[in-house]
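Notes, p. 3: input format for complexes.
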Amino acid sequence: MANVHIRPGWQLPEREVTPEGLWVNRREFVKKAGSGALVAAATLACGDGDGNGLGVVPDGHGPLDNIPDTPTANLYPEAPNDPRFTPGDRHNVVNPELDAASYNNFYEFGTDHGNVWRHVIPFEARPWSLTVSGLVDNPGTYDLVDLERRFQLQERIYRHRCVERWSVVIPWIGFPLRELLDYVGVQNLATHIAYITFHRPEQAVGQRTQTWYTWPYYEGLRIDEAYNDLAFVATGMYGHPLQKQNGAPIRLHMPWKYGYKSSKSIVELVVTDEQPRTFWNDLQPGEYGFYSNIDPDTPHPRWSQAEERIIGGDGWIPTLPFNGYGEYVADLYGGYVTPPGDVPHAN
Ligand code: MTE
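Output follows (347 residues plus MTE):
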């Protein structure tokens, strides 16, 4: 049976990679689209412009040059695609890496999406460890290199939909979150997990200058969401370890939720019996809920969520409930996409 593979519908096929010649980078895309609205939404979504000066960018250093050195780098090119593919029917491209690496949301490094790749240069993303605590049998601090070697790394091509209405398709490499949870031994009383990003103002200009944010960035999930097949821990992308601007060296990817649930550069995981507080919900509870499932029928208070623009694509396409992954996750929510009470404006 080892060679018999069943592909789930959430896995997009590798053969749909866009030829490099068709590439349009995200800044070009925003410009081409003439999308004042998109840019305004990006700013409105989560705060004002950062006002950060750029640090010195070494000559010749580009968006693809932010992969931290690691002795595990050799594991990444070998990571097999999760073999359980079926063709995606919506986004028929995988974005070229330059798209994914040159337009980012990572508030620790400012709010200027096109410059995050420059701001991350001083960030020391390796070596790294993850501290696990709370309702687990094996609490402790785990060296990331050991985790990368322990789990069979695999590739997953996921759609990503930002609350700001842009979307992108990225081949991530990593391991299912449930494997990590099983390894640390989640106890029966657990109902949720919380995950927390680093706090290093000396390396992260946004943490230094945007003092109105409640650093470090923190997020959470219900335990059954965390155990869902789709919940993924990404440590790599495009056949190598993660670029710093994409959340090196370890982030989550939750493809049926708005992007802000997919925290980057995580240092701590807490297994708990309470619903954890979350960064954006604490800042703007009327706008950002705990569940934050992608829902075209529940507008953000300041813009519709009915459509999105895929980076490099032509114009707007309809947004799908759960980002098109409903088949795998809808039964977690008892018939709702946005559960009652998740955001007050939806009631
Ligand atoms: N994680 C941290 N720590 N800080 C952030 O500001 N932004 C989120 C998410 N993870 C964010 C984060 C948002 S809003 C999005 S859309 C995605 O990262 C963007 O991921 P990408 O830049 O790799 O496309």
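Residues 1-6, 14-51 have pLDDT under 50 and may be disordered.
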